[in-house]
Write a structure and sequence with these properties.
The complex is a heterodimer of chains A (about 100) and B (about 250). Chain A is an all-alpha fold and about 100 residues long. Chain A has 3 helices and no strands. Chain A starts with 7 loop residues before the first helix and ends in a 10-residue tail after the last helix. With about 250 residues, chain B is an all-alpha fold. Chain B is built from 8 helices and no strands. In chain B, helix 2 packs antiparallel against helix 6. At the A-B interface, helix 1, helix 2 and helix 3 of A face helix 2, helix 4 and helix 7 of B.
């Protein structure tokens, strides 16, 4: 009936995890990974941190399905925006310079 | 008289219940859902800037790494910590309101506000550093038009000079700083609006307007504050950390 109250212990854990993630991402930036892995590692940590914030600080984990749907819709439309734009910009060099 | 009022309250439920809702739970869920719909539009808004960043970064990787290395990583990291801390105190403000405490939510909200203002203060210091080094894009910047001094081969190290990696040009660095100021500027604007919202919450909270049954404003401003935190969680590595491994000599 009434809403779910997230215990303080979970808030503290998430807070610690977010600070740890920040430390990790700074440390990883000074390491040389091959190819594009520096970016991939940084973005993976950022996505993990954002997920923790959304699920616990923003209570989505304990929210109705409708909220989940809205969050998923946001990510879906973001994916459309990115993939359609990239399909243009990142394929231009396929054409000969005359175009 | 008092008895009559009590009966009226009983019949209509909580004093904050609007007539078009069945009960407080339905009202709260509708409010949260509405806020999420607004946040979707915000995600798309910032998404456009992240998209522009990705496209230009792929076009000018060396310039983006050079420009990124000029940002102050310590200030950026400290600000990330400050913002995460403020998100935690915001979450605690919601928690204390939910369990019906009176003073604790106010203390948490004030802490959140102070941390938010700290973030903006550090951001202002960083903006000033970029202004001094001629790194604010555009010709119309008063007494400091864009045009950083470039570090030449063999010169003594100067932290105010731009260290261009091979293949990078100053014009391309300017593009990075356009995106840097657009993204962090819009983020800072959101923080300023958030600080205003916090002031309202502190006032209402002091007046005792919120209780375990009715605290949607606290919850909804909390969602907004956490969203702004998430934007920074992505901005920090993308803007500040992107070329560090190149500079430290890889």
């Amino acid at each position: 009936m009434s809403e779910h109250i997230v215990p303080v212990r979970i808030y503290l854990t998430i807070f610690g995890a977010l600070l740890l993630g920040t430390g990790l991402t700074v440390a990883a930036a000074f390491v040389d990974f091959p190819w594009q892995f520096n970016t991939i590692v940084a973005l993976t940590i950022a996505v993990a941190k954002a997920t923790l914030v959304v699920l616990y600080f923003m209570h989505v984990r304990y929210s109705p399905r409708l909220v989940w749907l809205i969050v998923a819709a946001a990510l879906f439309w973001m994916a459309i925006m990115f993939s359609l734009t990239f399909s243009d910009y990142f394929t231009r060099h396929w054409l000969s310079p005359g175009y | 008289m008092v008895e009559a009022e009590a009966t009226t309250q009983e019949a209509h439920g909580h004093r904050a219940l609007q007539h078009h809702f069945e009960n407080m739970e339905q009202q709260r869920e509708a409010g949260t859902l509405g806020m999420w719909v607004f946040l979707v539009t915000e995600i798309m808004f910032f998404g456009g800037m992240f998209l522009a960043y990705t496209v230009y970064r792929s076009l000018y990787p060396a310039a983006f790494a050079s420009a990124s290395n000029h940002l102050d990583i310590t200030l950026g990291a400290v600000n990330t910590g400050v913002l995460i801390f403020s998100s935690f105190t915001m979450a605690m403000a919601v928690y204390f309101t939910q369990i019906g405490r009176r003073r604790a939510p106010v203390i948490c909200l004030v802490l959140t506000l102070v941390l938010g203002l700290t973030f903006l203060g550090i951001k202002a210091v960083e903006y000033h550093d970029k202004y001094v080094d001629h790194l604010v894009p555009g010709y119309l910047i008063p007494s400091r038009p864009f045009g950083p001094e470039v570090q030449q081969e063999g010169q003594p190290f100067d932290e105010h000079k731009l260290h261009l990696l091979p293949g990078a040009t100053v014009r391309q660095v300017e593009m990075f700083y356009w995106l840097y100021f657009a993204m962090t500027g819009m983020h800072a604007l959101h923080m300023i609006i958030g600080a205003g919202l916090l002031l309202v919450l502190i006032y209402l909270s002091l007046k005792g307007r919120f209780d375990p049954e009715y605290h949607s404003p606290v919850e909804v401003v909390g969602l907004y504050w956490h969203f702004v935190d998430i934007i920074w969680i992505f901005l920090f590595p993308l803007l500040y950390l992107l070329g560090r491994h190149l500079e430290h000599g890889g």
